[in-house]
Amino acid sequence: MTVDTPSTPEVQCMASRLEVKSLRNAPGFLIASLALWWQARHAPGALGVALKAEVLKGTFWTYSAWIDKAAIYAYAGAEPHKSTVERKRKVMREATFVYFTAPVDELPMSWDEIRRRIAVQRDSAQSGR
Q1: Do residues 43 and 102 make contact, with C-beta atoms less than 8 angstroms apart?
Q2: pTM for the full predicted model
């Protein structure tokens, strides 16, 4: 991930782990993910966007840095993101989202750190069931 220079010492980050129900859904999910990655990279307020696709595992990871939460929500509500998410929910087994602020000098974070943050969120959600 390349991070544009923000004007604040901290930025809003979002990370996700998305898992499809079947490996036969993975290629279509990858194509949709790439389109949304491109959209996010050009969205107002986006500072950096990364996608890691483990297609043979049916797992997709995202990580993005934004100027604020409003920019994330604006992107999420814009097309084609909004309708793509609605369509792809049918093929998803599980989704975990993590929102956090991070100091600019810690960006970009490693995928190990992103995975750790998502694992904490998943563990917390499962223990709360």
Answers
A1: no
A2: 0.90
- Encoding tokens for residue 106? 């810690």
List the one residue out of 2, 106, 111, 11 whose CA is nearest residue 60: 111
Nearest to 40 by CA among 10, 11, 80: 80
DSSP character at residue 107: P
CB burial string 51-75: b at 16+ within 10 A, e below: bebeeeebbbbbbbbbbeeebbeeb
Determine how many CB atoms are found less than 10 A away from the CB of residue 114: 22
Coil, helix or strand for 127? helix
At 45-91, the pLDDT tens digits run 999 999 999 999 999 999 999 999 999 999 999 999 999 999 999 99
Distance, in Å, from the CA atom of 58 to the CA atom of 68, rounded to the nearest integer, reads: 30
Find, among 17, 8, 36, 5, the residue nearest to 92 by Cα: 17
